[in-house]
Amino acid sequence: MPPISQSTHYQRLREELLGEPRTWLVTGVAGFIGSNLLQELLALGQRVIGLDDFSTGYQTNLDEVLDGDVGGAFQLIEGDIRDVDACRAACDGVDYVLHQAALASVPRSIDDPLTNTRVNVDGFLNVLAAARDAGVKRVVYASSSAVYGDATEVPQSEDRVGRVLSPYAAAKKTNELYADVFQRTYGLQSVGLRYFNVFGRRQDPDGAYAAVIPRWVSNLLNGEPCDIYGDGETSRDFIYVANAVQANLLAATVHEDATGGAYNIACGQETSLNELFRMIRLGLTGYQPSVAQQEPVYDGFRPGDIRRSVADIAKARNGLGYEPVVSVAEGLGEALEWYAMRARTMAPSMERVQSIAV
Hints:
Layout: H1 8-19, E1 23-27, H2 32-43, E2 47-52, H3 59-66, E3 73-78, H4 84-91, E4 96-99, H5 106-111, H6 113-134, E5 138-144, H7 167-186, E6 189-195, E7 197-199, H8 212-221, E8 227-229, E9 235-236, E10 238-240, H9 241-253, E11 261-265, E12 271-272, H10 273-284, E13 297-299, H11 314-320, H12 328-357
């Protein structure tokens, strides 16, 4: 696959980082976005500290990154962000924190609001306090489009939010409040990134709370039904992970005048679930022709879901120099190739397991 193009602004930043390496902490480094951040930072010759408790991240994600042609230096600290001492150890000597560790699921937060709050609020506060005490230059943290709640005006812009619809959304909104307070009270610079629907390689297709794209890919390849909640015209703003990685590095290094707030990180493009299903099915036919015959199964609307979600990304463009250079279609092509390769490599091992069981 040819190299993915970069925005001119981001190209300049990459050249700057190659010439002047810094030290970065990535929390949730073994997760989906965290491991993609690690891959980019090491490719740029940076020094990276990773913090993860492997509750939702995987060693295989790290192995895939580290088995490649990487530069830089990496140190893993196995620890939980609910442990303030682990956060302090991880922040020691760090220039920038990229905080990705979270239990990132609306349904999970509805099922278990207490754990959601302990990880997503208390853990975030631990990271902020540890960064403040260590003299970290800036914290960039993962917020979410979930903070828009029941706001009906689209596209969603940063200054218009509604009532949140889940404990997960409440936690992310609380994160933004705490980050603002820490900047005004203690001088700890921060930037919040309101991710919309990020997808790409190493996004987990397994488990009850898997995101829609990897779950549908897995189901289609295994001949299992794909559930669509509602009538399929619910829409989301899907963003390929390379765009989210770009946004993190830009936010960490942008002029301090752009700090102290939150930015939408998305493509600014609305895609319905029906359209998304057709795109995935079509893309997978080249790897497994039988998927062309599969149809989705429609179910009732889920509690806590919003009907339409598409971002106004003007603030990120103007404030961070962010530009989503990878479209949904291009990103899906890369992601589907990765999932298909993953499925092929896992199949022989599954056959061996079944043979042993027999």
